[in-house]
Amino acid sequence: MLDKDGIAKRIAKELKDGYYVNLGIGIPTLVANYIPKGINVVLQSENGLLGMGPFPFEGEEDPDMINAGKQTITTLPGSSIFDSAMSFGMIRSQKIDLTILGAMEVSENGDIANWKIPGKMVKGMGGAMDLVASAKNIIVAMQHINKAGESKLLPKCTLPLTGVNCIRKVVTELAVLDILPEGGFRLIERAPGVSVDFIKQSTAGKLFAEAEVKEMDLN
Amino acid sequence: MLDKDGIAKRIAKELKDGYYVNLGIGIPTLVANYIPKGINVVLQSENGLLGMGPFPFEGEEDPDMINAGKQTITTLPGSSIFDSAMSFGMIRSQKIDLTILGAMEVSENGDIANWKIPGKMVKGMGGAMDLVASAKNIIVAMQHINKAGESKLLPKCTLPLTGVNCIRKVVTELAVLDILPEGGFRLIERAPGVSVDFIKQSTAGKLFAEAEVKEMDLN
Amino acid sequence: MINKKVSGAEEAIRDITDGKTIMLGGFGLCGIPENCIAALVKKGVKELTCISNNAGVDNFGIGLLLKTRQVKKMISSYVGENAEFERQLLSGELEVELIPQGTLATRCMAAGYGMPAIFTPAGVGTEVAEGKEIRNFNGKDYLMEYAFEADFALVKAWKGDTAGNLIFRSTSRNFNPVMAMAGKITIAEVEELVEPGELDPDHIHTPGVYVHRIFQGSAYEKRIEQRTVRPRS
Amino acid sequence: MINKKVSGAEEAIRDITDGKTIMLGGFGLCGIPENCIAALVKKGVKELTCISNNAGVDNFGIGLLLKTRQVKKMISSYVGENAEFERQLLSGELEVELIPQGTLATRCMAAGYGMPAIFTPAGVGTEVAEGKEIRNFNGKDYLMEYAFEADFALVKAWKGDTAGNLIFRSTSRNFNPVMAMAGKITIAEVEELVEPGELDPDHIHTPGVYVHRIFQGSAYEKRIEQRTVRPRS
Q1: Residue D9 pLDDT > 80, yes or no?
Q2: Which of C56, C57, C136, C166 is the most exposed place for a label (fewest CB within 10 A)?
Q3: 3-state DSSP helix/strand/coil percent for chain A, to nearest 5?
Q4: Does A118 touch chain C if contact means CB atoms closer than 8 Å?
């Protein structure tokens, strides 16, 4: 079973040299810590920055320089700043190669819900609806099961949707799964020490798995 | 009868303090030379400049600094530069208070033709179609009659249109005319030495004129 | 040039009266018009409709206007940082319209660019699409969304000149330029107000034609929401 | 950062082959990609569709490509400065589509902003509107115009870095930033190519994500079409 950093580490292996990448709040943010050596990626932050750098050193925080998670950050040589309209312009026009974001639920046909729990939680969709509707390549970083052990990979989302039929890959504490064009989760890799059976029983949506599923390589 | 500078001079009297103004190529460009004292206007050039200044001194021409007529110009303190999309953005959103442009023909319902003579001349509309479709206030600077003495103020334009029902005021070598909302030219002022009768016979479109029409004040 | 300078926030917001729709620039607490918000609180104007990406935090930003119940309706994309907001929302005291962040930004830009509507794929198939026209281009569905105008846009820039030209600093730019274009009356507060000619025309983010009033603000707090740092190694 | 640097114009345009659609930045002869045009002439690639606000003059700019008959079709807003162009057009040798300047700029921007279509009032009631969808918003008619994409966009900037970030100078900016956003492959030639970090992130007009190849051009002529001066008083 992976912790949050483990999920981020596994997702980082999906990065390819030359990618422009948008990282959502939460686990996706951690992906930046595990970018493989020799892989050059540029991080976009939808509040208006391309080329997001690391957190500043203590005492060097600049309140005018934050990321979409409102965290103080820095720029890198070659960074550029722009307004919110251009930021989502480059997202909609698919100049961003990969989007990584969190989810409360994902369905077997690639729907995602991550912005609202009716009557309980109303944070808003922020940029998530734009990102999932526009990105050509989206990876979801999420928990496979909730604290009660219930699956969050469902036949159909129960929460208000963020986007429909848009997710292609999910990485959880238990597994890496592709979402098939015809519907259904396909088990690609399992987390170290996690059995295929456990993943099957933790996945409410349709799951396709070979008899042998390789364990993730996190190194 | 006015010369080109006379027309420009008369139009300049329509400028109001605080106006943002777009000046077309030809006579409209001359208006900049006659801005009344105490009247502060900002000239927009649709190739991407707000705050157009005078021509440069000889030897100080900068090929990167031109106006929409491709003339070398200068900036003024407070000028700003932007791209073509933003330039027409501010035109379409009616941030420009007054547009002054030339015409080959204007009709009594405010149509204008100024971009094409089929089979003979094809220069293109440039920014004229955007300007006439967007501006809240348009003054046309034009010749009342052509060299053959034929009127260019018509019941209906014969040339391909640049815009429909958009012109409100016309200043010619003979007269200042408003275009009435219900159609027709209304004679407001006559050029020095030009009779109402001559204007009547030089206007093919419907003309409304009082018995007494005041002469233009060009000072 | 046309002189847009006013004496300060109070004069700038003098005609913002009850029931007006105002846009407020900023992302989180970054690049918000602190002086204008303070003046609105002091003036006590009520029943405002506020268009802003976020709703501030409990004790800062638009949160100050929420605490004093001056806001009737919020139009935002993300409001997760404000407990008082959530309380007013869940209790029904506050009307809220949540729209995708890119849609919000682009609808503002559309107003400034004289485009009455735009097409975006954001929200297709979700409750955001309810009642909206859907149109397919090249095999993909898009929502038609209308341009956003506001009675007043309140924006914060780093530098400005009295002709209304604005330059923003770092990511405090965010929604400010697009909202500056969408205000029927746009009020800019700046950290440093200079004379025309002191800003490089090539570096201006918002041309003065979009700005109606400008003043030099003071006492900027610039609160940080998430202070994240790394150890010096 | 991602290194977009190529050795020069020849390498940059290596895959522009017969029949491609290319956008060329510039207004008149101001801000045109002189080096790329020269390389296209040298390469002799034919049957090009060129999208550019103007068509150059007889012996410069796109005029060079017209003289060698490399252009099948021009899409422009104003072509009045080029006699050879007018001859080819009136004789039917050249296809020409004339569209309003603001429509041209905004259709390019729409591509870069992922908006499949935009609405503009320009051309309503004229031959430009023929066959186009008209839609009324708030009592005013607008044409629906589609986003413009090109196989290649050739733009000219003043400064750029190897990450593809561009800064333009004065009114040579014009169509360059919007075309840079609309190229499937965007090639930027710059007067000065620097390393990442040398350009201020706040001053960048075109973020590097929109640029695929960049090189430092040389021997810029920067011809002036209308040399207008005033006397020293």
Answers
A1: yes
A2: C136
A3: 20, 30, 55
A4: no
Residue identified by tokens 């700029």 is D105
For the question of residue B150 being annotated catalytic, the response is: no
Interface contact flag, D116 C142, Cβ < 8 Å:
yes
Smallest Cα distance from D87 to chain C, Å: 36
Cα B117–Cα B120–Cα B122 angle in degrees, nearest 5: 65
D202 vs D81, more confident: D202
d(CA D142, CA C128): 25
B–A contact: 3+ Cβ pairs < 8 A = no
Contact C179, C23 (CB under 8 A): yes
Residues in chain A: 219
Residues A102-138: tens digit of each pLDDT:
999 999 999 999 999 988 878 899 999 999 999 989 9
Interface touch C2/B89, C-beta < 8 Å: no
| φ, ψ of residue C119 in degrees (nearest 5) | -115, 135
pLDDT tens for residues C69-110? 999 999 999 988 788 888 888 888 999 999 999 999 999 999
Asked whether A190 and A212 are in contact (CB, 8 A), the reply is: no
| Interface contact flag, A122 C86, Cβ < 8 Å | yes
Q: At what angle do helices A84-92 and C101-112 cross, to 10 degrees?
A: 110
ipTM, two decimals = 0.97
Q: What are phi and psi of D13, to 5 degrees?
A: -100, 15
Amino acid of residue B187: L
Cα–Cα distances (Å) from A126 to A131, C98, C105, C123, C125, in that order, read 10, 9, 11, 11, 17
| Per-state percent for chain C, helix, strand, coil, to nearest 5 | 25, 30, 45
Q: Are A194 and A171 in contact (CB under 8 A)?
A: no
The tens digit of pLDDT for each residue in A24-78 reads 988 999 999 999 999 999 999 999 999 999 999 999 999 999 999 999 999 999 9
What domains does chain A contain, in order, with CATH numbers? 4-208 (3.40.1080.10)
| pLDDT per residue as tens digits for the range A157-181 | 999 999 999 999 999 999 999 999 9
